[in-house]
Amino acid sequence: MEYSKEREESAKKLAAQQVLPNVQWFPGHMTKARRIITDNLKLVDVVIELLDARIPYSSANPMIQEIIADKPKVVALNKADLADPAATKEWIAYFKAKDIKAVAVDATQGRGIKQLVQLTEDLARSKTEKLVSKGAKPRAARVMILGIPNVGKSSLINRLAGSNKAKTADKPGVTRAKQWIRLGSQLELLDTPGILWPKFEDMNAGLKLAFTGAINDEAIDRELITGVFLETMLRSYPERLAERYKIKEELPDKPEDLLELIGRKRGCLLKGGIIDMEKAQRIVLTDFRSGKLGAISLDRPTDISQEKD
Q1: CA-CA distance, 125 to 275, in Å (whole number)?
Q2: CATH T-level assignment (fold) for domain 5-22+202-308
Q3: What is the pLDDT of residues 101-120, one digit of tens each?
Q4: Which of 14, 122, 196, 281 holds its CA 20 to 30 A away from the CA of 265?
Q5: pTM of the predicted model, to two decimals?
Q6: What is the CATH number that goes with domain 27-190?
Q7: Rounded to an integer, what distance in angstroms lies between the CA atom of residue 79 and that of residue 112?
């Protein structure tokens, strides 16, 4: 199977043109969240930027760096258990080269949490020690978590806080009151919305957010999204598809034919032996999002340099 650059870009543009206009961007929420974050940023020593380890580039909001300016930052690559370990190592090295501390975490199971806390405390130490030198009482380091929706902020806060569960608002961009959550003896978290909606100007990033479920499935064309996802898998992880769906023959090079084969293998049959394509689409996307297709990364640091060239 051969995949030309032209074919890849054509598929992405076709999907993006029909999918992304249906994805709602919320400038009102964005403006309110930005104001709250900016107002409270002076109260914290360190910012934790939360990204999806499978798509660190696509799940980043470029506005975050603009807002925090020179405030010390730690990058937490969440859902690392679902990401390709080799790609995650590349991302850690990428951030290190930019003099940014980064750590892979799994907020659900707790992997990497101790390292994240240690990095945060280390970055805050110069600020807290400076305050003490000026006569202030010693205090815990203060941190804020920022990221786009659905990258695991609540899970991370709950894992960090243990029994001191965060009180989350029902709507993005909304908070009830300032709440400091104690995270051990040396760290306090300011629970603010921490949410900045992505602006879907980058069609490839928007597609990857749809793959992972960061964009609600009701807002997208699942058929197109699944097709482009299968194109991506055929290029990068064809063996995962063959293994998961027990396909011993050569994989079809057209995503629609591959989806039909997957549907047949998984028994997605309607009367007359017709494949239930909608059910097959749900199976493929659910398998990816739950990790049943294996550890997969859809962003690589090299993608950034290629886009800039």
Answers
A1: 60
A2: Conserved Hypothetical Protein Ylqf; Chain: A; domain 2 (1.10.1580)
A3: 999 999 999 999 999 999 99
A4: 14
A5: 0.85
A6: 3.40.50.300
A7: 11
Geometric angle at alpha carbon 116, from 114 and 118, rounded to 5°: 70
Residue 226 burial (CB < 10 Å; 0-12/13-18/19+)? buried
Each domain of the chain, given as residue ranges in start order, spans: 5-22+202-308, 27-190
Query: Taking a C-beta distance cutoff of 8 angstroms, is the pair 203, 20 a contact?
Result: yes
Tokens matching residue 289: 């999002």
Tokens, residue 227: 């097709």
What is the average pLDDT value for the chain, to the nearest integer? 84
Residues 15-21: contacts with CB under 8 Å, at least 24 apart: 15/207, 15/221, 15/224, 15/225, 15/227, 15/228, 16/203, 16/204, 16/206, 16/207, 18/221, 18/224, 19/206, 19/207, 19/210, 19/220, 19/221, 19/224, 19/225, 20/200, 20/203, 20/206, 20/207
Q: Which two tokens stand for residue 57?
A: 């580039």
- pLDDT < 50 stretches in the chain: 1-4, 7, 11, 14, 21, 164, 166-176, 308-309
